[in-house]
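ok so for the tutorial part 2 we go from a plain amino acid sequence to predicted structure tokens. step 1 is just haveing the sequence, like this:
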Amino acid sequence: MESMNSSSGEPQTRIKEANDLEQKLTDQWLNERFESLLPKIQEEWPDLARQTLEATRGSLDELITVIAKHSGNTNYGVQEQLEELFNTASEKTKDFAESLEPLEKQLEALLDELNKTLRPKIEQPVRKRPLLALGIAAGIGVILGVMLSGGKR
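step 2 — the prediction. this is what the tokens look like for a chain of 153 residues:
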């Protein structure tokens, strides 16, 4: 009989572990974005105090329960509203990231161009007079060292 009970309990244990992992991931996602989502949550439920919402930080279930109690909605209704709010926030983040992509490419192109034009201008004098370049670098290092350690005495 024990083998029957333990084998029938395994699928339930696996489902429970999967649900726990999903809940941890959801709570982690909420915790990371809570500050940015808080104003939107307050727009949706203006009668809730900020401190009340902040007390639920890190737990989606607690947030749903608190909002449901104060608003008179069901937990399921509140959960759907929050999911819609989260999806809207995620879409805005994606749109922002997509708008930055062309700027990133433009910056990479400018850095490549700068590397091609400026690098030879810097390397040429160093290759012609390596001892002078080394002396200048050492001198600057000594001066910076004296300035930085001078304030500690």
